[in-house]
Write a structure and sequence with these properties.
This protein has one domain. With 85 residues, the protein is of the alpha+beta class.
């Protein structure tokens, strides 16, 4: 998936706090059972990333910039409209 392509899906948190990553996203990213995920939080968002990025030499400040750029593209109104079920 190109860096500038954003795939947005809606998922709900279960009573036990679990969130299901939609199939299309798991397939595109190659997420399989046992894949370690890093969970990061900003003021109003949660970001999941494959654990393999921990072993790169990218500086945390560069990573935060990438996270902000992705979150800036999220069509918030569309997500809210779809979550009314």
């Amino acid at each position: 998936m190109p860096d500038d392509e954003l795939l947005v899906k809606v998922s709900k948190i279960s009573d036990k706090g679990f969130v299901t990553i939609p199939t299309e996203i798991r397939e595109r990213l190659g997420l399989t059972p046992g894949t370690k995920m890093i969970v990061m939080a900003t003021e109003d968002a949660v970001v999941l990333r494959k654990g393999s990025w921990l072993f790169t030499k990218e500086r945390p400040s560069g990573l935060l910039g990438k996270i902000r750029a992705v979150l800036a593209k999220v069509p918030i109104r569309n997500i809210e409209d779809q979550s009314n079920d």
